[in-house]
Amino acid sequence: MLHLHDLHLYPLGLLWADPSLLAAWGGISAAGGASLDLYKTKRDIKYCFYDLTNNIFWRSVVIKTTSAATTTTTSESTSSSSSKSTSSASSSASSISTSSTSAKSSTTSASSSTTSSERHFSSNPKCKAAVAWEPGKPLTIEDVEVAPPKVHEVRIKIIASGVCHTDQEYLTGQFRQFPLVLGHEAAGIVESVGPEVTKFSQGDKVIPLFLPQCGECERCLSPKTNQCRKNWANTQAGVMADGTSRISYKGQQVYQFLGVSSFSQYTVVPDTSLAKIRSDAPLNKVCLLGCGVSTGYGAAVKAAKVEERSSCAVFGLGAVGLAAIMGCQAAKACKIIGVDVNPERFEKARLFGATECVNPRDHAKTIQEVLLDMTSGGVDYALECVGSPVVMTSAFESTRDAWGTCVIVGWSESEAINIKVEKILMGRTLKGTYFGDWKSVEDVPKLVDDYMNEKLKLDEFITDQLPLEKINVAFDHMKKGIGIRTVINLWPEETTPTVDTV
Question: Which of 210, 334, 473, 496 has the fewest CB atoms within 10 Å, measured from its CB?
Fold first, then answer.
């Protein structure tokens, strides 16, 4: 006998059914009222669900409704562990009386005929993914399998993903297990949800998050931090809450980078690491809010709290640095100095709000000395967006004593910085930020709104868009400092991405 709590439901609408209906329907039982998510066709009501206990995907259950009775039929089921089809649940319950609690008016309005064509989700779909098999080697495009979501998990069809310097950092580093699917700055569409997921439905537009927000822990309830630790240790290790990855290749586990792995056409994430966004948002643009733009912009407006008419220096003019400049401009800073060894980025920096740009290689003095001279004693705020300990030291020493603030934004996991204690004793502040101090689940949708209302730039960051097959070109451009942000389109054949519905 199947039990309702064992079924993975694919939602489009909602029907409330009482225990008597469920018990009569092919041996499904439940205690008390139970909610069933349904598909609606023009004439029938169709249920698609996944039996987690027996690992079977039931392709369809069609309830034909007439004015007098509701007839239930079931199709064949497909086992995800075998290619063989098995018989479905018995259709002996050919007639079930409806009641006011078991069927709403929408069920009685359907007719008895069945549509001729049906489309269904696979329980373990194969899809394309860029797999990193070992550190420092190019990614290879493989056909991977993405398992169904488990409790409090959501499976997403990734539409677009930015290529971030953090991906490069961990491809060349030794801080994660391989094989690995990188990618963490993305946007997509909910394909299916696991048991106990209540905030997401199939078809929702979403941005996966490498920083969770459970909304219940001490950190989530505190206004002082955004650093929720729900599933943190596991996602950092590339696995879900149960200690395993949902992505595999020919039976071999493939680790999920930061619990996201957006260089895969499908992925599974915890429901606490996902932000639902407005339905009209362009996914190939707002994907940048999954990391780089949110991080840099928040570093200025949230972490540094840049004040009006202040002076700022931003070190590193990649996507994160340009977003930091945008934040400084939004905060109405009067002097915004962009610092980078690549002068080709200066024009773009001015577009985002830089008032001046400096190339450290053009000066005999250190860059901190140059900035002290330019600002008569140092900047009020310095934001380091490179991830280099040497640059971090320079940024800190470029701030004004007594009240200067330096925010470390660039990522480095194992290196140390060299700071003279006297520089701190004289009143400077040194701090770090993670994801720009944004509360991920609640703030990312607001940033999407800001973009849609033309309060935030995104299009201007994107200098190239490539299909997944050319992802190594994106990494090569990043190494050479070509462009700002490359967006990978994982479904380039879909000019207007849509979600399959019955």
Answer: 496
How is residue 175 written in tokens? Answer: 């801080």
Q: What is the pLDDT of residue 169?
A: 86
Distance set, CA 220 to CA 211, 230, 238, 355 (Å)? 11, 10, 23, 37
Whole-angstrom Cα distance, residue 399 to residue 422? 13
Peptide bond preceding 179: is omega within 30 degrees of 0, i.e. cis?
Answer: yes
Please determine, looking at this structure, whether the domain spanning 126-290+458-489 carries the CATH number 3.40.50.10330. no
Q: Which of 331, 378, 328, 386 is nearest to 353 (CA)?
A: 328
- Ranges for all domains in the chain classified under CATH 3.40.50.720: 294-434
Q: What is the DSSP string of 36-84?
A: EEEEE-SS-EEEEEEETTTTEEEEEEEEEE-SS-EEEEE--EEETT-S-
Residue span(s) of the chain under CATH 3.90.180.10 come to: 126-290+458-489
Q: Provide the token pair at 362.
A: 């053009």
User: What is the helix (H) or strand (E) element at residue 171, kind and residue range?
Assistant: helix 165-172
Q: What is the DSSP letter of 101?
A: T
In CATH terms, 294-434 corresponds, of 3.40.50.300, 3.90.1150.10, 3.40.50.720, 3.30.450.20, to 3.40.50.720
Distances, alpha carbon 287 to alpha carbons 46, 204, 323, 439, 458, in Å: 33, 14, 14, 17, 9
pLDDT for the residue 253: 97
* CA dihedral sign of residues 190, 192, 194, 198: positive
371-377 long-range Cβ contacts below 8 angstroms, 24+ apart: 371/313, 371/337, 371/339, 371/398, 372/398, 374/337, 375/311, 375/335, 375/337, 375/400, 377/401
> How many contiguous H segments (helices) and E segments (strands) does the chain have?
14, 26
Query: Reduced to 3 states, what is the DSSP secondary structure of residue 352?
Result: helix
Say if CB 16 and CB 35 are below 8 A apart.
yes
pLDDT averages per 10-residue partition of the chain, 502 residues: 39 34 36 35 37 39 36 36 34 33 34 29 78 95 97 98 92 84 98 96 97 97 96 94 96 96 98 98 98 98 98 97 98 98 96 98 97 97 96 97 97 87 95 98 98 97 97 94 96 57 31
Cβ contact 252:173 at 8 Å? no
Q: Write down the pLDDT at residue 174.
A: 66
Write down the pLDDT at residue 412: 84
Burial 85-98 (b: 16+ CB within 10 A, else e): eeebbeeebeebeb
d(Cα 305, Cα 321) in Å, to the nearest integer?
A: 16
What letter does residue 237 receive in the DSSP assignment? T
